[in-house]
Amino acid sequence: MQEAHLELGERIEVRRSQRDGPLDREMRVVEPDLARQRVAARSRPERRLGTDGGVERLAGASTSRAAGFGHGLPFPTVDRRQGYPPSTPSAVVGDGSVAMPAPSTAAAISVALLDWYALRARSLPIRAAGDPWAILVAEVMSQQTQIARVGAHWVRFMAAYPTPASLAEAPLREVILAWAGLGYNRRAVALRDAARAILERHAGRVPSTVAELDALPGVGPYTARAVAALAFGVPVAAVDVNVRRLAERLAGATLSPTAAQAAADGLVDRERPGDWIHAAMDLAATVCRRRAPACDECPLTAWCASRGTPGEQARPRSPATPFPETRRWLRGRLLAEIARGGDGWMTVEGPRGEHDGAAVREALAGLEADGLVVTDGASRVRIG
After folding, report:
1. How far is CA 249 from CA 55, 75, 191, 376, in A?
2. Catalytic one among 7, 13, 56, 139?
3. Taking the domains of the chain in order of start, what are their residue ranges?
4. What is the reported pTM?
């Protein structure tokens, strides 16, 4: 990601079309006063007269910290039994009420978060993804692999399979070899199945709705929302453990998965949902950390009900099993060996590393159940 060099007091304004990727965007410096005017015009709600501690309040706004999202800032609450408009984002908090961020509050949080992101974004290769297919591949790779590890693998994979059609037609052996190093190889099979579904159901174009994306093989609710927001500008939030922690700390309450999703959907920037997702993830990963939150470095402290609260205490852990002794290591070792052996049958016998022959046979059975290999019922095996 290109670095922006600004004079003191200047602010970056980033604009992009719904189909542009994170790097395909226009960046320009605008005067701070003009930027504030634009923000105020976009987020200014109707108000009635009334103040509370110098903070102008929306009619019906709660100033209770239990209501969430700030210390006395506008955040109306509604009793769950009375109901609320179905289109209104909400989060169930500890007192049983439904806390709904006022538009002005959500807009202010979004502006502060995106301003921070413009200067502090992590430089990750996968954020150069500019088309829906590249974004889908990056998100599938990130499902069970740390995002920092995905970059080089994603670049190589996209060079080999730049379109859904190219992956759909590829032999499984080549796909597995291209996936090598990422682990959880079942994802590679599911991604090829998704590419075939895209050809069959969507004329080779990645679908743009959350429902259609969620229906693709290997794409669950999180990945569907991430792709919809990043690739098509759909104003939804992709909530992983980091974004959920951010939402819970802002609200000052433990949220159910459904409530956390609703809260994040209410906070996501309507014009730049993809950047908002990346910003929320970066803030949670680098500042709003699980065990050692750096509240003095956070741009959202003015709205955070958990400001200054210590993070989670480290829990005693059992000594980790060395990776070469794990089943995952054995499966990866066997699959790479079989893939490098070509398209024909090969014999796999004997121990591998710390794993005896029985463990090898069990691992082969698991690989076959996942559709990665085929066995002949004896000791011969080939890629499925």
Report:
1. 22, 15, 34, 54
2. 139
3. 1-313, 324-383
4. 0.69
